[in-house]
Amino acid sequence: MQEAGRTIAQAADEDALFHALINTAIDGIVVINEQGIVQVFSPACERLFGYAPEEVLDCNINMLMPEPYRSQHDAYLARYLETQIPHIIGIGREVVGQRRDGTTFPMYLSVGEGMLKGSRIFVGIINDMSETRARDNRIRELQGELLHVTRMTLMGEMASALAHELNQPLTALLNYTGAARHMTGHLGEPAAKLAEVLDRIAEQAERAGLIIRRLRNFIEKRESIRAPEDINKAVEEAVELGLAGMRGGDIKRRLGLEPGLPALLIDKVQIQQILVNLIRNAVEATSGLPRGAVTITTHKNGDAVEIAVADTGTGIPAEVESRLFHPFVTTKAHGMGMGLSICRKIAEAHGGRLWLAANSEEGATFILRLPVPAPEPAP
Ligand code: ADP
């Protein structure tokens, strides 16, 4: 006997195959009609959503979605039937599902369209993304922790230099306060003179405050945030931090910042972490040498801004150079060797690069290249 080109035996086989497929598929399978009414709800869906099939079959699929999607779905389906312009059908994307107990979970939904006995049906394949998302979050958290720990280590190494840096304005404050107190004892002194001394006090207090604020900002535990930033300003601040405590030392600093650079979309603290690292390495390689200098320049090169940190130090030893960006590579007694490996990862996460551009016995130059964001398309 023939039925639409198939024997009954073939049709029965196909029916069994269809059920086996639905029952054994690891991903959830759900079939709806044109009105969004559920026709098939696979066992994997039962496990995912916590509903028994009879609670979902013949009901609107929107019961498996949280608001606002739940209220929008009927209109969305109707619009698709009218316009045939798909947003998800034939494609697939990550959406949010709602379980019977009201909790929600991320899921990847691919939707196909077909005809069954003259009626249109939509077949959804649902892949639970909760584990993947949880894993991504854990990795992001760990990366954040690592960046934080390395920043803390960097600051730990710089603690004595920074204490020295803070000591200067604090000592100045004490001196000025002493002078002011002395003046109040001589009331014949013109008030303008006293005001001038008070201004100095305020200036120094502000300077100390600024150093502390930058430090706190740098070591604070924080979420990664990218915002349009003036890169020259970020570089200047990083130089202040990186060279802290060197004032009066015999290492010269040279800054060559190209004016008018476009704003970059960066996590400022992370980029400053790279720069502070490069600058500290440069300072360490240079210290003790005659005519030591660290030069930091910025300039636009094509569709990116390049920041170069060059020193006149010892250069990088040959045995280190090939593994320079690997973790735990260090020649320092108390070095962790994590600095450059993390710096490169931060640069790459920003769509940029970090490399050793020059290396000799006369010193080393590192370049950090960060892309200029594409202009927003006109509305
Ligand atoms: P750490 O500073 O903890 O050693 P890094 O990853 O920052 O870790 O640096 C790895 C090694 O690379 C340093 O120990 C040093 O030998 C070498 N290095 C990095 N920058 C320079 C530089 N500017 N001049 C000379 N050697 C450098």
Task: Give a brief description.
The chain is built from ten helices and 14 strands. It has about 375 residues and is of the alpha+beta class. A hairpin with a 2-residue loop joins β1 (about 1-5) and β2 (about 5).
Please give the largest β-sheet.
5 strands, antiparallel
pLDDT averaged over residues: 86
Q: Any idea of the CATH topology of the largest domain?
A: Heat Shock Protein 90
Enumerate the distinct ligands: adenosine-5'-diphosphate
In percent terms, what proportion of residues is strand? 15-25%
Instruction: Supply the helix-strand structural class.
Output: alpha+beta
Order of helices and strands: EEHEEHHHEEEHHEHEEHEEHHEE
Q: How big is the Rg?
A: 32 Å
Number of helices: 10
Strand order of the largest sheet: 4-3-7-6-5
Bin the helical content.
40-55%
Question: What oligomeric assembly is this protein in?
Answer: single chain
Number of strands: 14
CATH superfamily label of the largest domain: Histidine kinase-like ATPase, C-terminal domain
Number of domains: 3
Distance between the termini: 63 Å
Structure description:
It is a single chain. Helix content is about 45%, strand content about 25%. The chain has about 375 residues and is an alpha+beta fold. It has 3 domains: about 1-130, PAS domain (Beta-Lactamase), CATH 3.30.450; about 145-220, Helix Hairpins, CATH 1.10.287; about 225-379, Heat Shock Protein 90. The strands form 4 sheets. The chain has a 5-stranded antiparallel beta sheet. Strands 9-11-12-14-13 form a 5-stranded mixed beta sheet. The mean pLDDT is about 85. The structure holds adenosine-5'-diphosphate. Adenosine-5'-diphosphate binds near residues 282, 335 and 336.
